[in-house]
Amino acid sequence: MHIGLFIPCYIDQFYPQVGIATLELLQKLGLDVHYPLEQTCCGQPLANSGSEKEAIPVYKNFVENFSRFDYVVSPSGSCVYHVREHYNILEQTDEVERVRKNTFELCEFIVDILKTDDLKIEYPHKVGIHQSCHGLRGLKLGTPSELVTERSSKVHRLLKKAKGIEIIGLDREDECCGFGGTFSVFEPDVSVKMGKDRLEDHLRNGVEIITATDMSCLMHLEGIARRQKHNLKAVHIAEILNSNRL
To answer: Does domain 126-241 match CATH 2.30.30?
Structure first.
């Protein structure tokens, strides 16, 4: 497999360790990974702000950079969902359809494409899983609580076999953190209140580390935790899956 690695702009600028962990993990899994140097943003911030027409050149740049790969993998559920669902406004050439079909979030790629859920790692911590909205309901990385059916989660599947880990159950398993991209800018008071409620659930249940498939959600929760002086860490799922191997 020839893999194109897409690293979202906020990870590139603020959390490069997440991008590095994603690259190292994919290489450990025996994949041929490439990072196109001309990649930029997926265009989600523009679209979320009501300027999707202005995002079209950004969309086209993404397609130009990634259409040659078998799969595109990214440590961001929201960006992956945006590529799959919002690139429908482009002319649906073979290249566009290929990129939309073959772009995957890291966890779903490992579970659905590589067909494995045991990465043979050790992670002796009490971990709370934040189910990011785009990943949960858009990419179907898990079963949302409003559906009366058997619950499942690809993130849980990958973590539960880690030696020493304790996955902490939450009172509200899939509540939004309130970040929502530009929502946190235009509605900061509501966003912060939602974030405080989400953080309190983790703290109340004894979580040491919060993880998620989106660093944007973790950035929001970690910022609130720091301001409130809580001893709680936010660690992206890629960093955990790339941790100590047995």
So the answer is: no
